[in-house]
Every structure is written in C-alpha cells, then in structure tokens.
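re: ur question from yesterday

yeah so i grabbed the chain u mentioned. its 395 aa long if i counted rite. heres the sequnce exactly as i have it in my notes:
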Amino acid sequence: MMDLSFILNELGEDRDNYYNAVSPPIMQTSNFTFNTIAEMRNAMAGEFDNNLYSRGQNPTLTILRKKLAALDGAEDALLFSSGIAAISVPLLTLLTSGDHIIAIENPYSWTAKLFSDFLPKFGITTTFINGCDFNNFEKAVQSQTRLIYLESPNSYSYEIQDIKRVADLAHRKGIITMIDNSYSTPIFQLPIAMGIDLVAQSATKYIGGHSDVVAGVLTGSKAIIKKIFENEFMNLGPAISPNSAWLLLRGLRTLPLRLQRSFESTKKIIEWLNHHPAVEEVIWPFNVGFPQFELAQKQMLGCGGLFSFILKDSSFAKIELFCDRLAHISIAVSWGGYESLILPVIASITNQQYNLQNKQHQLIRMYIGLEDPDYLIKDMQQAFEQWSNYGAPEN
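ran it thru and got these structure tokens back, copy pasting raw so excuse formatting
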C-alpha cells in the first residue's frame, strides 16, 4: 500500500507538464486534438486510456482516478456525476435479465428504489435481507445470484455486515460483491483488502468535503472498471466535469484531517447525549452500547461524524420542535461537509403516516462537521430546553 501522504499530495501529479504549479490545472475542455490521423485512430481504439472527448477521460479526472484507486487499494477507479450513478451504472453493465441480487435491507433510499423499481424492468430481482446475521446471506443465495450488495454501515441506523465473511462466501459461489463505503471512506475502512470486488462512494460527502460538488466514485479491478467504462458508462454519459474533479482533488488534501476532527468531536457529543435525560438511545457504530460494537472495532479504523438518536418522548410534534429550534445546526439532507446537519425521518413522512411503534420513524440523524463541539452542544442544549417545555402550562 502506498503512503497516504504520497497519494494525497503527489500521486498522478506530473507537475513538469503544467509549469510546476503546486495545484494541477482544470483542463476545462470538451475536446482534444491530434497531430495525425494515426494518433487519433489509436485514441479512438482505446478511449479508456486516452484523452479523446471529456465525456470519457480528461487529464484532471485522471489525476483524481489514480488517487482514489490508490486510497482504496484498487487497480483503477471510475468517476461519476453522482453517488447513485456510481451504483446504478455498474449494475447495468454486470447484470442481465434473470439475474438475482442479494442486498441488505434499508439501504440508501435511491439504492432501494434502484433494486425495487428500476432493475425489475429488466428482469433483475432482489432479495433484501438483514445483513447483521451472516446466515441470512447463505440462505438467500440462489442459482441465479450474481451480486451481493452491502452498505456497511448504512446511513440511518448503521447496521454492519461482516465484510470479509460475506466476501469469502461470494468468492466460493462465484458471485460479485459490491459495497457502498460512503460512511467510512478508505480512511476508516478498506473493503477491497477484505475481499470486496467493487467499492462505491458518494464523493459528494467526505471526499469533496465542502458541500459544493456532487459526484460518485467506483473502484475495483482494472478489467471490471474498463468493462463498465466501455459499455454503459460511455452510452449513458454520467461523467463529471473537470471543474468537479478539481474540487474533489482539493477535498482530498484535507480528507484525513477532516475525518479525524469530525470523529473526535462526535465522540464528545455522543458522550454528552448518552447522559442527557431527554435521550432514549444513541446509535453510532463506535458507541459501546451499539449491538455490533465489536465487529465495528474489528473492520473499521475509525468512525465518521454521522449518527442517529431517539428522544424519550418521540411524538411527531416534539421531534419536529427539537429540530426546528436548533439555531446553528442546519436542517438538510446529505453529510460529510464542513457544516453540522440534522435530518429526522419525519421529514419524509406526514403526521398521519407516523407510527410511534416504528423505531425507524423515531430516528433523528445528525452529522457533526468541523465546528467546535462545545458550540454544537450549547445549541442542542437550548433546543432540548425548549423541547422539554413543550406543552407545559404557563405560569
């Protein structure tokens, strides 16, 4: 494995080609010219390794590809215009009518729609399982199973799968494995080293880190990545712009520092929440009370700033009140940027749909960014005070 500092600061950066500039230029071009027809013919015959048209490859993207592949310990990488594109396009390449997928239950919402609504149009079926129990993977395998899909941890209730054990099972059965590693990034988890074939990430999150770019990345063997590129990727055109690639390069420079800052702040905030009288439960893989704490410690090198908690009085109105009263923690989707965010499940349902007996409905997801943790605790404390006074008679 290459040294992390070398990957982030030097790999792929041939500064002699651009005036020894410290930061690589943005090759903001759609097209590339050639000195001869023979050169052009060569590029057209192997666009995966040549710059012909920026819907395929581009020098700015190539620098980023090399870094992201090396971070994952993969042979190659492919960049996409969103995280869900980095999941959807590869499946369209690798699967065909009659194939079967095993997927963990409660994945990212658009991934769930991909499996439940989109892929069945092409005759591809999915069995959703509780991935916390390894035996469920063995039981779900069919003769037509071609892919096992993991998301460990997932991004709301943080269920974890035994990655190496699942990868070993898949290899014995000749099944491809794929994981969404957005939660951990290669800084905190290395699925390829555990035997996973393909690793997808929403680069919008920690890799970008500044909440100003939407992108996805897929890493794996050169053979699989090239197959995806030469087929559905080039046909569907989900490429990112050179400017977006440059923003991701900028984000990579500080990725370890930002992740560690978020991790350390989250530990302090969760310790506070664990002892707060208004909080019923805090759900975070590195929280000692987490059901899969030992597995998290075994296969994760650290834990990001995304967690969920449940209030003791989890009525629809009081969840909404608490979130609305936060002054400095913003209400928004996504995570992984510099800013702290909150997103309750009730944001996606109505009061009439809310079921107090459904634990998933009670979840409040929070992301801890780069602010001082005491600043965030103070904001939550004042929101809790207003929450506790809700419905109390006035003096």
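noticed a couple things. The chain has two domains: 4-253, 255-386. also The first strand starts at residue 76 and ends at 80.
anyway ttyl
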